Amino acid sequence: MILLTLTSYFYPENISSSHLNNNLNEAYASSNIKQIVVTPSPCRGISEELRIEYKNKEHEVELYHNGMMEVYRFSMFKEGTNVLLRAFRYTLICCKQLYYGITLPKIDTLFLASTPPIQGAIGSIIKKVRKIPFIYNLQDIFPDSMVGTGLTNKNSIVWIIGRLIENFTYKHADKIIVISEDFKKNIMAKGVPEEKIVVVYNWVDQNAVVNVPREENKLFDKYKLDRDAFYITYSGNIGLTQNMDLLLDLMNDLQKSYPKIKLVLVGEGAYKKNVEEIVKQGNLNNVTMIPFQDYADISQVFSLGDAGLVISKPGVGSNSVPSKTWSIMSASRPVIANFDENELKSIIADNECGIFTKAGDKEAFKNAIITLYENKEKAVQMGKNGREFVMKNLTREVGTQKYVDVIKDVVNNRKQ
């Protein structure tokens, strides 16, 4: 069985979802699914030297999967922060992937995700030309997400085009894997039949993300962090939707009244330079910024804080549960969420694994942080509850097997 995967980001790029892709690659190989990956030259979360090295690699057989993965790379200019240039880059990527999708030798099925959003339309075209099934992995609902960030509004030309692309993709996809029940409700309201949808939460590798005691965490020494302080941590994309302005404003308030509460930001993104400037201009000595770390150190990253943050601007996360939530819980840390009200709120409340506050409510967010700072034993117990929830519901084995089952079912049904 041969699976063609079209993706905008791939190894050695270091992004927040890298572990999900790595886990899937291993699951496919062990399930006798050969994978052909088509991707642009890497740029996210890597050094310029590594980028140059991989620009010269056009066709690889990844031997660590016993020859069960082939990778085709094509040259592409580096991703920047300009929205229009990024959109142009995505368009070029999709055009190149369309060519590969039509011309590569025999494949049994096609798999691609929802970034960039026009990729779904490319998949639909390849399906019609090659007459193969198409599986769509919906990690972000476009154009709803753009409305949530304020980049457009309903009934604008962008919205109309986005809905046309969305409907075209949903119509032609044989199966749509969504990451939450709220995602499922969203697209069913747009006319997608329930039998076409499979809910698979973004899991966490429960063996790779574990609690590392503070005295054993090497990142405290590496970045000269005070082991006696109370840390809240954010790990992931530092972009336009994560409401960093609110978070930094909050830290400015806490700097005077609660000097022992400190923030560590781990990651990269389009808004990182703005954050660095705000920290510098505001003389925020309670904020430390560090780059993405190697995946081998992921336990140390999510064990840095006494609590982990899940945050976004209002209207952005109404249908999603960020996968970093599971990593926070897997490391036995409580979740402090400042997010749109959705199933994340009920998960946190029902399992007593953190504190949920409404997106944009700075005072409630600040009070949640202070509450755990003043009740450290409660924070520890919430962290234990979160780990228990992960072990029961969100292990790597459960998540990857669901993807494998969907792929095999789609291919077998087509052959019958």
TrEMBL record:
Q: What CDD domains does this protein map onto?
A: GT4_WbuB-like
Q: Name one GO molecular function term.
A: hexosyltransferase activity
**Gene3D superfamilies, per database record:** Glycogen Phosphorylase B
Whether Repeat counts among this entry's keywords is no
Q: Where is the Glycosyltransferase subfamily 4-like N-terminal domain?
A: 58-205
Q: Which Pfam families match?
A: Glyco_transf_4, Glycos_transf_1
Give UniProt keywords alphabetically: Transferase
Every Glycosyl transferase family domain range: 217-388
PANTHER family listed in its UniProt record: SULFOQUINOVOSYL TRANSFERASE SQD2
What is the protein's given name?
A: Colanic acid biosynthesis glycosyl transferase WcaI
Source species, please?
A: Parabacteroides chartae
- List the lineage, top down: Bacteria, Pseudomonadati, Bacteroidota, Bacteroidia, Bacteroidales
